[in-house]
Amino acid sequence: MTGPSEVWLAEGVDARTLPKVLLHDHLDGGVRPDTIIDLADQAGIELPARDGKALRDWFRTNADSGALERYLETFDVVLRVLQTPEALHRIAREAVHDLADDGVIYAELRWAPEQHLRGGGTLDDAIAAAAAGLREGAEERGIRAGQLICAMRQNTSSLEVADAALRARADGELGGVWGFDLAGPEAGYPPSEHIEALTKLAGEFLPVTVHAGEAAGLESIASALIDGRALRLGHGARVADDITIEQSDDSGTRVSLGPIASWVRDRGIALELAPSSNLQTGLELAEGSAGGGRVESIAAHPFDLLYQLGFETTVNTDNRLMSDTSVSEELQLVADAFDLRLGDLEQLQLNAAQAAFAPLEDREDLAEAIDAAYDAGGAV
Fold it and tell me: Is 73 one of the annotated active-site residues of the chain?
């Protein structure tokens, strides 16, 4: 895994030493290239490259397509080698180790077990294997890690997946199921199509986040909030479609928020922003909104607008393999683009801690650890 050697030199802080809370990281989107090669060798599976560096480059190049659908196609290669409980256990444990090396102290890793059943296992078997790997890694490295179970929105198995998530629910336990998500191609597959599963989850009080506001706009976000009862938005960047700049001159900038943006901000619904991934998948804001049009650079990303307006912004990786990134690198990108200082970075981590699908006492402990480390100048 790559990572910056030094970050924020003006304040003498290396980002990797700062404690970080990660809310949006796909388990099968962060597999080590060497592990993919090893698992492929064991199963006799052909890969587009046989060298770790070459394979990493292949993923990054092919994910950098400008379209979410093409970005998701890179997962086909990973999924081929992740069809046994042993493989799932391994990558879950390794993911926790990699995150701990980057200073992550709390991580929610999401994945869709329905995509890992070609070997004949069950949803329960797959979830248990990942749980064991996450728990082992977390105990070895002294961090907190659990899983969010995803249902693929283009499929019809969301109720079955929701039932499996509820059976494996283990609030706050290492490796346990801490919440639920809808993932997959966003456009054309609104959360309303999965209303039965989402209603059942709400009735059982299992926290839900929904991919919305990434490749589709305000209707997708509204469905996530209304039909999904989402407590967080996976990405959510296109909530900026509901923000209009009324005035911007030497006296300052005045904006107006529409009803969806107001609801998201005023209710503290966290945005799981992933800047590098958003650029790769071709984030495009509605014309006429704040920053409307294709987002071509981190500096053009609505992150800073949302942060300055008081949205519960968080910084995430999405898929560390496909974006060839880490949490520290994502924080460096936004810090450089928007001149963020140490206090801003602390606030981003406090936002993430507050939005975590963890018991209140655990979230308070996270906030205390973050405050203490930042007061000390950054030490995990």
Answer: no
